[in-house]
């Protein structure tokens, strides 16, 4: 009876594992093979060319721009999104009335269609859109926003932060609610002010949540695609193009599957390395007992 029970349990675990291996691991391994070949969809022969696709990428100016933009998405987007989510969570923790309503209002953008949100912002930020109309009424100069090579990327980052800050808020709220109130009460009795309690008690005990949020947010910004595609298409002058959008264009517009696979491998290595570094550097054990 016990043996049949274990057979059933391991069988149930094996099915999703096989699905994961077939859907996730196998395509990743296959992409390594493609990245080492001259893989043109219009040609029957796929000769092995070694690392030539990788060399070609680093001689492509657009790839270097996409790599630089992706770094900018992460460096700006992740800290601002986490700080905003933490600040909102700390404020909501102190709200007694309509707590559920406020949480819902902040979380709604996260569950709203990314495409719909992107197009709404694209329309409102047009040269003759609502935002510029307000600026003119206030006596200010209209702005190009998404049409400006210097402004476009920051507008896209702001939209991405706005849409995902509700998710970070919810994660931080969950972490804050697991912290025993007795720690802060004891610190308050000892004379610690609000800032000292936040810095020396709340944030250290939130460390596992912060590590999770940093890793998830970093991966999200490294994989930036939908907002960019729908708001700017990577323009103007490739000023907002990301690595994923570059890979998409290379594969499905220029049909250069070998180079696209090589760019995918580079992005995979960046995501994996950054995630491991973040978990190693940020992860700290805190125990006040």
From TrEMBL:
Keywords (A to Z) from UniProt: Cell membrane, Membrane, Transmembrane, Transmembrane helix, Transport
Biological process terms in GO annotation: transmembrane transport
Gene Ontology CC: one annotated term: plasma membrane
Main localization (coarse): membrane
Transmembrane region(s): 7-32, 73-92, 104-125, 153-176, 197-222, 260-279
InterPro entries xrefs: ABC_transporter_permease (IPR051393), MetI-like (IPR000515), MetI-like_sf (IPR035906)
KW Transmembrane (keyword) present: yes
PROSITE patterns the record matches: ABC_TM1
Subcellular location: Cell membrane
Membrane topology classification: Multi-pass membrane protein
Pfam families: BPD_transp_1
Domain of life where this protein originates: Bacteria
The keyword Transport belongs to this UniProt entry's keyword annotation: yes
Residues of the ABC transmembrane type-1 domain: 67-278
Family: Belongs to the binding-protein-dependent transport system permease family.
Name of the protein: ABC transporter permease
Organism: Paenibacillus ferrarius
């Amino acid at each position: 009876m016990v043996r049949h029970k274990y057979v059933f349990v391991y069988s149930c675990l094996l099915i999703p594992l096989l699905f994961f291996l077939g859907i996730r691991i196998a395509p990743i391994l296959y992409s390594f093979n493609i990245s080492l070949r001259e893989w043109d969809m219009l040609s029957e022969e796929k000769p092995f060319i070694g690392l030539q696709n990788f060399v070609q990428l680093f001689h492509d100016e657009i790839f270097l721009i996409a790599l630089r933009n992706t770094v900018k998405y992460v460096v700006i987007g992740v800290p601002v999104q986490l700080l905003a989510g933490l600040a909102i969570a700390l404020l909501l923790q102190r709200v007694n009335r309509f707590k559920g309503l406020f949480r819902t209002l902040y979380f709604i953008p996260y569950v709203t269609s990314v495409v719909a949100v992107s197009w709404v912002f694209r329309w409102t930020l047009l040269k003759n859109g609502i935002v510029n109309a307000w600026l003119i009424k206030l006596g200010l100069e209209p702005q190009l926003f998404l049409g400006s090579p210097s402004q476009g990327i920051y507008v896209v980052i702001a939209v991405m932060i706005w849409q995902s800050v509700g998710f970070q808020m919810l994660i931080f709220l969950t972490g804050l609610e697991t912290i025993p109130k007795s720690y802060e009460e004891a610190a308050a009795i000892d004379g610690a002010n609000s800032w000292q309690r936040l810095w020396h008690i709340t944030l250290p005990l939130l460390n596992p949540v912060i590590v999770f949020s940093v890793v998830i947010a970093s991966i999200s910004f490294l994989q930036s695609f939908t907002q960019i595609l729908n708001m700017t298409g990577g323009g103007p002058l490739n000023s907002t193009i990301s690595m994923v959008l570059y890979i998409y264009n290379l594969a499905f517009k220029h049909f250069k599957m070998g180079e696209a696979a090589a760019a995918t491998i580079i992005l995979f290595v960046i995501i994996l390395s950054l995630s491991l570094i973040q978990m190693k550097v940020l992860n700290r054990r805190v125990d006040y007992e």
